[in-house]
TrEMBL record:
Phylogenetic classification of the source organism: Bacteria, Bacillati, Bacillota, Bacilli, Bacillales
Species per Swiss-Prot/TrEMBL record: Paenibacillus aceti
Pfam families, A to Z: Mannitol_dh (PF01232), Mannitol_dh_C (PF08125)
Keywords: NAD, Oxidoreductase
Catalysed reaction equations from the record: D-mannitol 1-phosphate + NAD(+) = beta-D-fructose 6-phosphate + NADH + H(+)
Domain of life, per lineage: Bacteria
Mannitol dehydrogenase N-terminal domain sequence ranges: 1-194
Record's protein name: Mannitol-1-phosphate 5-dehydrogenase
Top-level EC class: oxidoreductase
Length: 378
């Protein structure tokens, strides 16, 4: 069984590549980073270090890699893979869609077997987004055949894998916790499940709980920590003021999630505590600017701040802490982040209210916009 994984980065090597390899797949990475591809081709493996007292080192062996800029190689691998996964960033999916579409055409010509393509990005419905981008590149007739041959189950992935600083650039340190939840409804009946992944019949409660707790909490820690001059998540996550803000934001998303999906309140509170503890892992050095990266994406309508805040507001819930986090996100002006710079340019050009409205999809007069502006001024 061969799995083609797009994106040999932190989550690609440290989570999905590792899990697929342990589940019995021969893993082929596709990446556009030449040095990474060459190193994988040369070493055919790497080590994953678990950041807990066990200090376990897990060898991943027998992997290979192709240059994602080579369209022929990509199409060939897509045509012959038994499973495809991605971890390239949700905004990069559009760049891998042409190679996947070309590979699906080849697969159809050759009468290939059914295929699942699972995007493992931090976003709601990322496989569905990829499907739309791929299908748009096929003719109406091809789309019909492809619909019976290729499925795109949505998924939620949870494991913190920071930037790596090892002598061997392929090795990767990860937190011990991991969870990969896949939407079973989108799979072809009778498909063998991936060992180590968890399957559910309705992904939305899972992805929202994960995104609006782990990722809302993480970026809240990052934006508050950045404002206070910290450089790591650990430093920020130990600061009482930051803890209060993050906890407040997570109580707000938590009330919304409990109300919307019927999670048990006490269990959800324990879930929040556990996640805030994960941010304080002393064996993991995670940069604030990595976790806060791409603030325009993180302030977009369907992402980890605006969507839960709007849902909470519609339920009549409190959103004051979330509004403060959004205001802090608007102040994230890290020069090494292209989106942060674009955001600051937009604020300078149009004013903060208009800039926030354009990014969040909310009107300038919306009550939520008003709360964010008040927090921004403070
Ligand atoms: N790092 C983490 O802890 C987690 C990350 N994620 C998600 O996984 C995705 C990847 O994140 P990271 O691994 O942290 O980022 P990363 O930057 O370490 O890895 C992304 C990889 O994709 C490659 N790439 C870019 N364009 C490509 C293309 N056209 N074809 C093939 N490869 C391409 C890059 O060269 C890079 O190696 C993101 O959507 C992120 O939100 C999800 C859960 C955890
Ligand atoms: O990868 P993104 O969406 O930029 O966000 C960073 C987030 O992803 C993670 O890497 C893993 O969920 C978290 O560490 C962090 O919340």
């Amino acid at each position: 069984m061969k799995a083609l994984h797009f994106g040999a980065g932190n989550i690609g090597r440290g989570f999905i590549g590792l899990l697929l390899s342990k589940a019995g797949y021969e893993v082929v990475f596709s990446d556009v980073n030449e040095a990474l591809v060459q190193a994988l081709q040369e070493h055919k493996g790497y080590e994953v270090m678990i950041a807990d007292e066990s200090e376990q080192r897990i060898k991943v062996e027998g992997v290979s890699a192709i240059d994602g800029r080579n369209p022929v190689a990509v199409a060939e691998e897509v045509a012959s893979a038994d499973l495809i996964t991605t971890a390239v960033g949700v905004t990069t999916l559009k760049h891998i869609a042409p190679g996947i579409a070309a590979g699906i055409k080849l697969r159809m010509e050759r009468g290939g077997s059914p295929l699942h393509i699972i995007a493992c990005e931090n976003a709601i419905g990322s496989s569905t987004q990829l499907k739309e981008q791929v299908m748009a590149l096929l003719s109406a007739k091809e789309q019909e055949t492809a619909a019976a041959l290729v499925a795109f189950p949505d998924s939620a992935v949870d494991r913190i894998v920071p930037l790596q600083h090892h002598g061997n650039p392929l090795d990767v340190t990860v937190e011990p916790f991991y969870e990969w939840v896949i939407d079973r409804r989108e799979m072809f009946p009778g498909t063998k499940e991936i060992n180590g992944a968890h399957y559910v019949d309705d992904l939305i409660p899972y992805i929202e709980r994960k995104l609006f707790t782990v990722n809302t909490g993480h970026c809240s820690t990052a934006y508050a920590g950045y404002r206070k001059g910290y450089s790591t998540i650990l430093e920020a996550a130990e600061d009482e003021e930051v803890i209060d803000l993050v906890n407040g934001a997570l109580q707000e998303t938590g009330s919304m999630l409990v109300g919307a999906y019927g999670f048990k309140e006490e269990e959800h509170k324990a879930y929040i505590r556990n996640i805030m503890e994960r941010f304080r892992n002393p064996r993991l050095s995670d940069d604030i600017v990595r976790v806060g990266r791409s603030p325009i994406r993180k302030l977009s309508p369907e992402d980890r701040l605006v969507r839960p805040a709007l849902k909470a507001w519609k339920q009549g819930g409190d959103i004051r802490h979330l509004a403060r986090v959004m205001a802090l996100a608007l102040k994230f002006d890290y020069a090494g982040d292209a989106e942060a710079m674009k955001l600051q340019d937009l604020i300078a050009e149009k004013g903060v209210r208009q800039a926030f409205a354009e990014i969040s999809g909310l009107s300038t007069e919306h009550e939520l916009t008003q709360s964010v502006m008040e927090a921004y001024e403070k």
